[in-house]
Amino acid sequence: MRGEAEEKSLLLINDDINTFDHVIRSLVEVCGHDEIQAEQCALLTHHKGGCVVKLGDAAVLENMCRKLKQLNLDTVII
């Protein structure tokens, strides 16, 4: 594995501000989720406090993280 980019996770963190519809639309727009996947992530985030919404290369996830933050979603890369 040496020399390969390490896969990272983009974690969406629950908040009391955003609506389910906004979260779902944002995940579809930024992460390329379909409606069902985005809805499941929104529900998991709401009930569990957070949900990994994307796995991948750190640079790609950083861009998605920035875009989701611009949409007022609380995200972090782990």
Q: How would a crystallographer describe the biggest sheet? A: 3 strands, antiparallel
Strand order, sheet with most strands: 2-1-3
CATH superfamily: Ribosomal protein L7/L12, C-terminal domain/Adaptor protein ClpS
Number of domains: 1
Helix content: 40-55%
What structural class is derived from the secondary structure elements?
Answer: alpha+beta
CATH topology, which one? Ribosomal Protein L30, Chain: A
Shape: globular
Q: What is the β-strand count?
A: 3
Mean pLDDT across every amino acid position: 94
SS strand fraction: 15-25%
Low-confidence stretches: none
Question: What is Rg?
Answer: 12 Å
Distance between the termini: 19 Å
CATH first level:
Alpha Beta
Q: Count of helical segments?
A: 3
**What's the helix-strand series?**
EHHEHE
CATH architecture: 2-Layer Sandwich
At a glance:
50% of the residues lie in helices and 24% in strands. By secondary structure, the chain is an alpha+beta fold. The chain has a single domain, classed as Ribosomal Protein L30, Chain: A, CATH 3.30.1390.10.
